[in-house]
Amino acid sequence: METQERSYFSRDDFVQGPDQSLLAHELAHQWFGDAVSPQRWSDVWLNESFATYGEWMWMEHLGELTVDEMAKEALNGRYPGSTAHPSAQELFGYNSYEGGAVVVHALRKELGDELFFTLLQRWVAGYNGTSRTTEDFTALAEKVAGRSLSDFFAAWLYAAQTPSAFPQ
């Protein structure tokens, strides 16, 4: 569990050695979820999807599956439903975590690494200590990209069914 100041883990999390994916996910919340918090419950994807994406990046670093492979698996297993507008039953479901990370990966593919990581840096640096909305994030993404991303976000973030393949 993450809190504003630190992540907490139970002894059970370490019985058979540390769960690297759990550690990475919860520590990623120090930036996505704690440094910048979601303003509304419907914005919860902003912390869960980025924490999941950070988890994927760490697992790739450890030599597990690549981020591309994990994203493709998650895309194939994604449930119908909007990541940006989850129902009460879906609020902490697949589409806020893995499904949201699919949106993050698609955005990385759409922008390229340089702009994508610039966006993440500006998000945390510019909004540290505040609560933000999905609209704040999409506006910053468009500013960093230097172009409209409305079609991208309509298809990947707001639609009930996402595209079946990532941007090239």
Can you give the helix content as a percent range?
40-55%
Low-confidence segments: none
Cross-sheet strand order for the largest sheet: 1-2
Based on Cα principal axes, name the global outline.
globular
Any idea of the CATH topology?
A: Neutral Protease, domain 2
CATH class: Mainly Alpha
User: Biggest sheet: strands, sense, closure?
Assistant: 2 strands, parallel
Give the total of beta strands: 2
The name of the CATH architecture is Orthogonal Bundle
- The helix/strand series, from N terminus to C terminus, equals HEHHHHEHH
| Euclidean distance between termini CA atoms | 36 Å
Structural class designation = mainly alpha
| Overall pLDDT score | 87
Domain count: 1
Radius of gyration: 15 Å
Percent in strands = under 5%
Contiguous helical run count: 7
CATH superfamily: Neutral Protease Domain 2
Keywords: Hydrolase, Metal-binding, Metalloprotease, Protease, Zinc
Pfam families: Peptidase_M1 (PF01433)
Family: Belongs to the peptidase M1 family.
GO biological process, one term: proteolysis
